[in-house]
Every structure is written in C-alpha cells, then in structure tokens.
Amino acid sequence: MSASDTSVTTYLELSEDGEGAHKFYEVVVTGLDVSVRYGRIGTGGQLKTTTFASPEKARAAAARKVAEKERKGYAPATPGGRAPRPVTRRATTSAPSTARSGAPVLWRFRTGSAAFGIHVDDERCWVGNQAGDVHALDHDGSVTARYRLPDGVKCLVADDFWIYAGCDDGSVYDLSGKLPFAAWTVAPDVDIFWLDIHEGVLNVSDRDGGLTVIDHEDEFQWSRRGEGSSGWMVRRDAEAIYHGHGAGVTAWETDGSGQRWHTPTRGSVLFGWQENDAVYAGTSSRTVARLAKSNGRRLAEYRCDASVYSCATSPDGEHVFAGDSASSVYCFAADGTRLWKLGTGCGSALSMQYHRERLYLVTTDGSMACVDASPEAIAAAERGTIPTPMDVKVAAALPTRRPALAAQELTAVSEPADGVVVECFRDGDRTRVRVLSEGYEPGWFVQFPRRIREPGARFVVEAVHGAPGGFYRVRGDIRRLL
Length: 482
Prior knowledge:
This protein has 482 residues and is mainly β. The protein contains two helices and 41 strands. A hairpin with a 3-residue loop joins β28 and β29 (328-333). The model has no long low-confidence stretch (mean pLDDT 91).
C-alpha cells in the first residue's frame, strides 16, 4: 500500500444529558477519497464518499468537516464509549444596588451573555462570556479583535506574554496569535470551575473541590481532593498553589507532595486574587479575607453588604476592591477600612481587575465596564456627578477568529524567511515537537497545539521562549512549512 492510500480516521461524538443529542461523526481519508459516516450512536449511520483531485485537497476537506463539527460541540471519542462532559454553569443572582451613588463608568461594552473572563494589561482589555465569545478592546473602549470559541468561557488567564481562555468544552485556548489554538485538554470527568497557569503549567480547580495539575506537554501530573466542594479559586506562584473552595483556602506544594496550610473561611470561597505576599478570598459570608501566603494567617478582613462575587487589588494590596451580588463595587484601605461603595449600573461584577486608576468589571448582564477609580472621579461620583458612559459597538468589518483545529487550516509558506522552524516527530506513542533552527537546545520539547501535530510536519513560528522547566513556548503566529 502506498503512503497516499493510508487511511486516517477521525471519530467524534456529541453526547448530552437527558433527551439531548447522542450522535457520532466519523471522517476517513484514504488517498483521494473522503468518507463521512454519521448518525445516532449505536446505529450504523449513513455513509457518503467524495473523491478529490489530490490527497492534499482530500485532507483539507476532511479537516474542514472535522473543524465544523468540533465548533458545534463534537469531541474526539472512542466509538460508543463517550459520556457527556460534566459542565456546571455558575448560578448567580444580581439584586439592585443599595449604594446611594453610581460608579463613574467611562465606557461599557455589552457582550450579550453573562461574562466571567477578564484580563487587563498595558495594551488591551479582554472579556470572555458564557456564549464562547472573547473580545479584546483598547483602553479607550474600541474593540480590536474578536474570537469565537466552541463553548462558554470560564475564565481568562495571563501567563507572561500568553493569554489563555478556559472553556466549558474542557480545552484551554491560546489567544496570543492571529488564530486561537487548544493548548491543553482537561480530562472529561473534571468539571472545570477555575484555572490558573504559571510558567506553562496548568492548574485546574473543579466542582468536587479537587485540584488537577497538567504540564506543558498536556500530560497529567497530579490531582488532590480539597476539604470542601466547589473550587471557584485557584492561584499559583513559584512557591505554592492556593486553592479556594467551600471549606476555605488550602495551600499545596507545587509538586503535590502535601499541604502547606489550610485556613477555614466563614462562607464558601467564590473568587480569589493574589499579590506577592498574600492571597485574597471573596466569600459568600460577605467578606474578603486577606491571608498570608507563608502560613495562611488571616491578615485583614474587608466587609461588604452582600455575598462577594469578585475581588482585586491595586499593586501590592494598597487598596482592595470587591464586587457583591447586589450590583455594587467597594474599595477598602489595606487595613480593612471601607473607603467607598458605588453601584455598577450593569449588574453584579463576576470578575474584576484594577489597572492604572481604572477598575474593569465583567458582569451578570454580560457587560465589560471601565470605571474611573481615581480619587477625583470617586469624590465626584459620591457627590452625584458621574459621566455618561460610552456604549461600545463592534465594527461590522472586524473578522471573527476561530480555533485552528488542523494543520491544513494554517497559512502555508515555502521558505522560513523569518521565524523559527520546528518539527513534529514520533517519540514512542506520542507526537512531540522540537526546534530545528540553529542556536536552540536540541533536547528540549516545544509546547505546541496537539491538534495540529503530524509526524514529519514542519512549521514556522514567530519566536520560541525557554521556560524554567526546560522546554520552549511558542510565541505569535504558526505557519505550515511546505
């Protein structure tokens, strides 16, 4: 049999609870032919075969079919063996604010669905919502990029240059280039609640109060059960992993060898934040607790008037911010003194971040709001003088970026005029990636999207960066080398 006659099979299933869909979709590429079989799981289904002009066109057509199905929620499976992935949508309520004044909101962007994901840096403000939409805006409120991911966005996480979106489909997508890629895929039996990423290592907290750690090669490292359920907080630094759940906050050794400390909280932990020396836990008992990273000692408490959905700090914890279930935001001094409370005007803040005298919120009504948190603006708001927020719109011509699910979807180049060349190769039963360009460590693997790996395939990437664990991380766009 020639190489062009070798069959490549992709098998997907869509399985939902109750009376939902329970279907399969199988694509087989053999030389010039693409055979598609589909139907209800447990039946033979229907079969359709199409012949193309070249093997390359056949593979490209198959990749498009698979990508289309994965965007609709289908996932790779073993025939007949896939159970529905557990997904818990966070149940939130949002009462009207009891604050006497509204916050000075400069601009507001309505995403169309409840939003949990936020990240703000010097260049952009990112928001991800329950519909799977991610938008990037500049600090003046103009939308600069939009992404469509296969499922709801649980959270947005920054790890140095890289921006990641953790989704309900169990994948964590790298948004750092022109096209998003699935960088990790979490085991189907883990009901993801929150994520954090530190130097290329993924940390997952889940519905059962468990904690799972996955390395840069998308390989499971270890997992532990916490003392409570509903792990809505996970934060990590070089020293420990800080896991918040229904029974408080637990600090774990990064290698999983044991607990460093455990501190109970009066209510369930609903959100977490960290600074260099402390972690902050927003709780259902209307408080934010500041705990010492070294030993878990309670350093301060910040009291709100309703359950705390989110919290954040200014650099080094000089000021502490909180968002409650009654559409209010608060600011406290480091010692716990409440400085102000204002209404958001757009629901309760499910996540927040402070950046250069602005407080960015994403809320229950699907808005991203930029609040002027400067002393002058807050003083004016407390007197009843607030600006009229600018309502941000998405430009109709702005393209939507969807995940690249196969190598054939990438831009192809014939010469690596700029960038770094990497190659996929077989290593036992795995396909790994190494750098071919000169000047790099030959024994280091490259963290690379698993879905586009093909043994023998070569790619050109904008840059690779060495990580402390002895591997490379890809930065920027990926192109297929012909």
